[in-house]
Amino acid sequence: MKFGFLLLIAFFVSYVAYGQGNNYVQNYNKFDGLALTPPMGWNSWNKFACNVDEKLIRETADAMISSGMRQAGYTYINIDDCWHGDRDSLGFIHPDPKRFPSGMKALADYIHSKGLKLGLYSDAGSQTCGGRPGSRGYEFQDALTYAGWGIDYLKYDWCNTDGLKAEGAYKTITAALRKAGRPMVLSICEWGSDKPWVWGPAVGHLWRTSGDIFNCFDCIEDHGTWKSWGVMQILDKQDGLRQYAGPGQWNDPDMLEIGNGKLTPGEDRAHFAMWAMLAAPLVAGNDIRNMDRETISVLINKDIIAINQDALGIQGFRYSKKDGFEIWFKPLSNGRWAATFLNRAAETKKIDFNWHNEKVKDEVFHKDLNAASILYKIKNAWSGKSVGTTKNSLKTEVPPHDVLTIVLVP
User: Fold this and answer.
1) Are 271 and 393 members of one domain?
2) 161 in Cβ contact with 136 (< 8 Å)
3) Is pLDDT of 11 > 80?
């Protein structure tokens, strides 16, 4: 009788345990210690869209070195959409055998041998934006596959996601990456629709804040059901987001259009300077195998990159704007500041900035630029030359669609 009672209890306990599941808790937290400064690299989409193959990726890795970009801090070679082949009978994804005949593992080994890292693209939906197999329902398989290939960075898009909630979908891929065990940077490409800056810091390392960038300085491309945004339109969409950015978590205003032929040299400088001021990921989107000297000089400018990569990780803020002319400030480590004078107008603008009369305060991160009591040396970040101190007013001009970026050192 006693044995039968114990057997009944055991059955009851096992039944309750079965009904409640195994109490396995997923880890929805991103890998720590990654992207402590904004990621720097290259992505295939802006220039090549779906025209990607292993030859292009290998040549781009080689160009990353020969151009000086790797030495300047660019690390990631990211393959965007359309690398995908089919899933096998067990559901595992394979690269397109015609485009990537050597396979992704061999390509990753080549990239790693160059001192670089390889990134891939997938989508939270059933299909990618380019109509290739998405990761919905295959998240854990895909994460295992990417880990086996040696992938270092995953851009995760948001097309064909009928019925999904963004935060939950991105938590799923984060849990899958954690289970696979290989640390990867997760780029949340949800376009800012569901305020990823609120929940994204725990889940991923960067999150898109808007729709796609368009290769234009100040215009909008209307596709009917959606829009692409020029550089200045993307810049304006960053208002109110800087408090969410910091080491390991970055607002992402999308990839760079520098060197893609439609922006003037001044506009290229303005684009790069403002992304640096925003502490944005610096992901080149041009053909770095074929760059003129002007493009290279922008992309590897060490002083502008240093503003972007500053250890404090504070996103800059707009101090003033009037008639298409804006002044931005960004606190830097060791009491330094960066300032950018942005001319969005069609005519030259004059600067007459009296450091003693202007009160520059960062209300979010509690930093003050007090030039009335502290003397700062001023360096032109584009030329690398000293341009005096804050003892005197800054007087100069900024051409149309161009910038002056300076660093102030106490």
Assistant:
1) no
2) yes
3) no
Assess if residue 9 is contained within a domain: no
Q: Match 């969410």 to its residue by tokens.
A: 244
Active-site hit among 81, 157, 254, 287: 157
For residue 384, what is the domain's CATH number?
2.60.40.1180
**Residue 20 pLDDT exceeds 50:** no
Mean pLDDT of 245-271: 98
Residue 236 a catalytic site member: no
Q: Are 352 and 337 in contact (CB under 8 A)?
A: no
Annotated active-site residue 254? The verdict is no
Catalytic residue among 80, 123, 142, 212: 212
Q: Is the dihedral of CA 286, 287, 290, 296 positive or negative?
A: positive
Count structural domains, the chain: 2
Final residue of a domain: which of 308, 337, 354?
Answer: 308
DSSP state of 28: -
| Same domain for 145 and 200 | yes
Output the six-digit token pair for 402.
């161009």
Query: For residue 375, what are the domain limits?
Result: 317-409
Instruction: Name the strand (E) or helix (H) holding 208.
Output: strand 206-208
Query: Half-sphere exposure (CA, 13 Å, Cβ side) for 86?
Result: 4
Identify the residue with better confidence: 372 or 400. Answer: 400
